[in-house]
Design brief:
Length: about 350
């Protein structure tokens, strides 16, 4: 009888102890799995937006901050998030933002190989290189409630095009871009002189007239116009009563003003744009009641990819690579690791 009682006691004890042991073991295994998952997630997040060369080295660039004169080393892909958020409205289609990311990456790599700054690869000024704004500063300018959503969209555009650049003859192109072409892009030789690039041609894009950047006007009195011109041309003299004293003499292949007569001076359209701070050198002139009005089409130099044109094409169903191949001719899109 005693033996039976002992067996029963052992059996009851086993029923409680064994499950507890297995439960503890299972909990420990689950805990280990969860820890591994967290570590994997952190590792994955750490690798996000960090492009590497064929040798396995992360690509970093030396960025010059124009206002402070300081240079910092930043990861290329992280830098591009700041560039895309500065250069293109976040409201644009994702495929347009992805095209901008590829173009900006290409432009950066080109600058790394063709340095303009002595101790830096590129600067943060849109007037010199390409715009850049910190995440903190960008968040200050975005509407409350959409900041994180906007940044996720920008990051997605960069991450989904990770490493992609535009090449011609297996080299990164000089990937110029601008806001709005006014319907047709321009040849670089007509803006900066020198030689043309074979991949940059006059390209027509539909839908750009739907954007606010397409049309602008500047109206000046005769005296105001003369004063602005005298800053550069001290001896300028214009007979405003003579219609031939202010006259467009020649247009470029894209329809922009190549040369304009201003009294006793013939001035290039690009130079007049800079003097008067016009949105582009694609303009018409209207003279009336002692005033002169410049009716301008487009925004920017007009070379390379039009940003509003890219958004228009994206709305028509084009993806990022199709958009890029619309604006840059006879090019290939490759991974930067194949070039560096």
């Amino acid at each position: 009888m005693k033996k039976i009682f002992i067996y029963i006691l052992i059996l009851i004890t086993s029923c409680f102890i064994i499950p507890a042991i297995f439960s503890k073991s299972a909990n420990k295994t689950a805990e280990t799995l969860n820890t591994n998952n967290v570590e994997n997630t952190i590792e994955k997040e750490d690798n996000t937006c960090k492009e590497k060369t064929e040798k396995g080295e992360e690509i970093s660039i030396k960025l010059l901050h124009e206002k402070t004169g300081e240079t910092e080393e930043v990861n290329l892909e992280e830098y591009l998030c700041n560039v895309v958020s500065a250069e293109m409205p976040v409201s644009f289609e994702l495929e347009a933002l992805k095209a901008q990311a590829i173009v900006a990456r290409t432009y950066t790599i080109f600058k790394m190989e063709n340095k303009k700054h002595e101790n830096a690869d590129i600067c943060d000024s849109s007037k010199c290189c390409q715009a850049w704004v910190s995440k903190e500063e960008r968040f200050k300018r975005w509407e409350d409630g959409k900041k994180e959503e906007n940044w996720i969209k920008i990051s997605k555009a960069v991450d989904e095009t990770k490493g992609k650049i535009i090449t011609y003859n297996n080299k990164p192109i000089n990937a110029f871009f601008h806001s709005n072409s006014g319907g047709k892009t321009e040849l670089p030789v007509n803006v900066w002189g020198g030689n043309n690039y074979p991949y940059l041609q006059v390209i027509e894009t539909s839908g750009e007239n739907e954007y606010k950047q397409f049309l602008s006007e500047l109206e000046l009195s005769n005296e105001e116009l003369l004063d602005k011109l005298k800053v550069k041309y001290g001896d300028i003299n214009i007979n405003f009563e003579d219609d031939n004293d202010i006259k467009i003499l020649e247009f470029t292949e894209s329809g922009r003003v190549r040369t304009i007569k201003m009294g006793n001076h013939n001035i290039s359209g690009v130079e007049l744009r800079n003097i008067l701070n016009l949105k582009s050198n694609n303009f018409e002139i209207e003279k009336k009641d002692g005033k002169i009005k410049f009716k301008v089409k487009g925004y920017g130099h007009g070379v390379g990819m039009s940003q509003t044109g890219a958004d228009s094409l994206a709305k028509q169903g084009k993806n990022a690579e199709e958009i890029i191949k619309h604006f840059y001719k006879n090019i290939e899109i490759k991974n930067v690791s194949q070039i560096l």
